[in-house]
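Lesson 9: reading folded outputs for more than one chain in a single document. The general rule is that every protein is listed as its sequence immediately followed by its structure tokens, and records are never interleaved. Here is the first one.
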Amino acid sequence: MKLANLAAFFAPHKTIPPTRWKAAHRWDLAPIRVIILFVGLAIFGLGDSLLIQSNIGNAPWTVFAQGLSQRTGLLIGWTTAITSIFVLLIWIPLRERPGFGTLSNIVLIALFIEVGIHIFPAQDNYLLGIVFALVGIALVGVGSALYITCGLGPGPRDGAMTGLHRVTGIRVSRVRLAIEVTVLLAGWALGGTLGLGTLLFALLIGNSIAISLGVLARQTAK
């Protein structure tokens, strides 16, 4: 593949593209759509586990889940699921409606974080830790693109973000930033790992998702 073609293949996409598997509503459960959703959430969870095992810093919500895990003695998969459930409760006053994808997000991401932690070795080597973090961010981007394009409902955190934006009128970017910073600081106070991996995630996750959406858009257009 020529360099120009390679660049075009990985060009980021600015919006969520229409796909052949997009649902008509949040409980439109065609088999292929559910499979793509589950695969996306599994990839997301495995990517998050690579960030954890990198030992150089986690994504903000995982910093919180890890800190909560250390304080309670629960597995990090459990604390991830518990955190998601509590975030989902915020949807009630915001009048957000969960979908099949929302509930699947809570269960499968937590499950595959635990699976990944048992598969991938924790890194003591800093350079290998950076590799783990970068691969993890790429996988989170791919997983996000797959489950978002199914149209079966946002994850608990995304729904809270859009709900707060709608109720308060504050820009989505500012709402998300406020949530991420608050969660990150709380997780750090609880003992979660904060470091270069956290910074890499903040800088790269947006492009990782956009590139993955672009690849899906071009492949489904064929």
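And here is the second record, again sequence then tokens.
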Amino acid sequence: MQPTACPTMKIAFPLLLALMGMSFAAQAEDLKGDAAAGAKLNASCIGCHGIPGYQASFPEVYKVPMISGQNAKYIAAALNAYKKGERKHGTMRAIAGSLSEQDIADLAAYYAAHGESTPAPEAVAAKPSPEVEALLAKGACVSCHGANFTKPIDGTYPKIAGQYPDYLYAALKSYKVEGNAYVGRGNAIMAGQVKQFSLAELKAMSRYIGSLPSEVHTVAQSKFR
């Protein structure tokens, strides 16, 4: 049984997340990304992120995330996390490790702008089942990811509505992992959140969030240039 949070903690927790996001954002603002330069750097990206529905095979099978239209600050934060080993994924760490800080800023700017020609979804988000609604409320997911999971409170947090459910599930599970050299994500806040849920509950939340109208997508690109 989880201890009941006092009212002060319920107020302070989202505030703490917001302050942490502001700290990450301040660091990201030191570099201005150039989308045109990023378009020349994405040869290592399009082999996976430029193929709609492409599936990764290691460490488990899931669709690689859609990143066109994602927040630039989040893309930069994710690449830096792979570069530092805070996110464990051999291929992504190798790619991120080959990029300079300016490269990362440029790629982030490119992919954020990559979806601008696609209109924002107008469909009304489906209401979750009472069970899933209770899980989302328990996790306070909208406190960071915003209304309909498309309006994060800070750009360093991702838009997650409409993202592939199997990727969302794999990502959430990774925050539970400790002491594994190949799998895991080192984010204390997310780890604290997901550890209160069973795998079945994480899968149910992922299915619902993935069913929502999305602002992120994959723009098909040829591997050959």
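What the second record shows: The domain at 24-116+123-210 is CATH 1.10.760.10 (Cytochrome Bc1 Complex; Chain D, domain 2).
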